[in-house]
Amino acid sequence: MNTPHAPHTPPAQHPGAPVRSGIPEHGRIPKYYAAKVDIAALLDTLGEGQPLPAERDLAQRFEVSRETLRQALRELILEGRLRRLGRGTVVAGPKLAQPLSLASYTEGVRDQGRRPGRQLIGLDRFPCPPVLAVDLGLSAGDPVWHMERVLLADDERVGLESTYVAVERVPDLDTAFAPDSSFYAYLHEELGIGFGDADERLETVLATPREALLIGTPGALPMLLIHRFSRDTTGRPLERVRSLYRGDRFSFTTHLGPRAGG
Q1: Domain 19-91 fold
Q2: C-alpha torsion angle, residues 63, 67, 71, 74 (rounded to 10)
Q3: For 28, which of 178, 192, 220, 257 is 20 to 30 Å away at the CA?
Q4: Top CATH class, 96-253
Q5: pLDDT digits (tens, 9 = 90+) for 189-219
Q6: What is the C-alpha separation between 230 and 240, in angstroms, rounded?
Q7: Burial of 255: CB neighbours in 10 Å, binned 0-12, 13-18, 19+
Q8: What separation in angstroms does the CA of 122 have from each of 72, 125, 248?
């Protein structure tokens, strides 16, 4: 019987690693976790996009069963260290660090040297329901747009965005706006609408079967969901946005300052 070995403590240059590499104080760790840490160390020696050795070879190398190895690989995929490519598994690149700010998705991705893009799923116009009317400062029944787009980074599908905005604010959205471009840039440059402030709520969810199909991910993959309510520079409600991001490809950053009176 194989005896699980304690993984090495991550070096100091990995400040985001778990304390003591996730080993509990009693020192007993599951075999899959020991294999996971060993594979993670192997990934550090490989470059982005490099294929992982075959499961059989890895199982022999780390002295674990194929099923134990697969559990370790599943966790590394969920964490974004690995990704499936065809019938194989390759080393994933670093996560996209999207700022929690009024900057657009396009700006955030471009700032990291990636090529942003969007693929239109649907653009519909319908009478605004009462709940949405409150958010957008409208009367129930006023016309509203719903625009749904897949988010891309270097042609990789990484999220899904749903935008609700009053037709009176952007009457020509269906004819004058290029759906693969930045909506914020269109509002500012073409319509002279500036963003003043916004409220956001961030939570973790699982994608619905439809969302997983559109984004191209397994249904069990954790997703990061952001609800945003934006206002223009006059304080008037502007948009409601629901953005779903792949948990294995995104992290979010923000700057914190001292609280007034604290």
Answers
A1: Arc Repressor Mutant, subunit A (1.10.10)
A2: 110
A3: 220
A4: alpha beta
A5: 999 999 899 998 888 888 888 998 999 887 7
A6: 7
A7: exposed
A8: 38, 10, 26
